[in-house]
Amino acid sequence: MNPIHSITNHPTFLKNICNHLSDAVAIIQKKDREFQFIYMNPTMRKVYGNLEGTPLNEWGCKGKLDQLKKTFIRADKRPDKLVEGGNGSSVSPFGIAYGIQSIQQGMTYFLYIKMEAAQVIELLKYKEQELAESESRYQTLVETSPDAVFLHDEEDRIIYVNQSGIQLLGATGANELLGKDVKSFAYNESNDDVRHRLEMLLSGGLVQGPLERQFQRLDGSIIEVEVHGGLVKYQQGKAVQTICRNITDRKRQQNQLEYMAYYDQLTKVPNRRYFFKALSDELTWGKKHGTMFALLFLIWITLNRLMTDLDIKLVMSCL
């Protein structure tokens, strides 16, 4: 059996050997129709980041991934050899030459990158520059976003807010919001409910969204907001990113349309559509909870005459 095959078939042996190498080593495997990193030694993680469990199509651009997959195909044809790929940063997904050996055709591959000290330093500088540029682009997008963006730490304290978030809560500057408990802005919702939702996000869980909630601004006024939340990394720690959109005007228009649909515009009395909706709601609720309800159907024969003889508003108030 090929030595590479022998090593990869014994995970503990693989880690004992590869964890002390100054060269970069990784195992790439096909899972759920996608190739992903299933093991990286410390050198690989140091230079390229911890990508274990990350699909290749989420890691690199299509051109470089196509080049890597072509190397997989060449490696499948020579399973006893370490096939060389990418001789330069323009074609290599890793910035330098690398080797691929097929462990299981079309499924599992051994990745080896010989790392000279100068190359490691150069790659680390490149990665730092790339990260700084990426963070700069992200911050520009966030700062200019029309939606409010908040970051809060594991103790629910606001640690970042963009300009739209400052305006949303009626502050004059970020210093009025930083350090405050994000739960203090939730209106008509218990702190326990908000904390439960944040704990779920911090643990990596998902909260079905968007959620419609009410916030209380610094001046005490209440606004309607649409909220999305997710887990992000912030300064080597975990944080929850909350994106909020002010939907107060939209909710007001929806309420107006609903009122027009269910109330007579002249008398302001609930109409037939409202009656059937309320009846349907009661039937549904009764069926769900196993209860009964009574319906009184009253016909007022002299109603039309009363409306003719008396003031219509007086008749409606009696009703």
UniProtKB/TrEMBL annotation:
One of its Pfam families is GGDEF
Which SMART domains did the record assign? PAC, PAS
Q: Which Gene3D superfamilies match?
A: 3.30.70.270, PAS domain
Keyword Kinase in the entry? The reply is yes
| Claim: Nucleus is one of the keywords in the record | no
**Parts of the chain that traverse the membrane:** none
UniProt GO molecular function: kinase activity
State what protein this is by name. Sporulation kinase A
Taxonomy-wise, where does this protein's organism fall, top ranks first? Bacteria, Bacillati, Bacillota, Bacilli, Bacillales
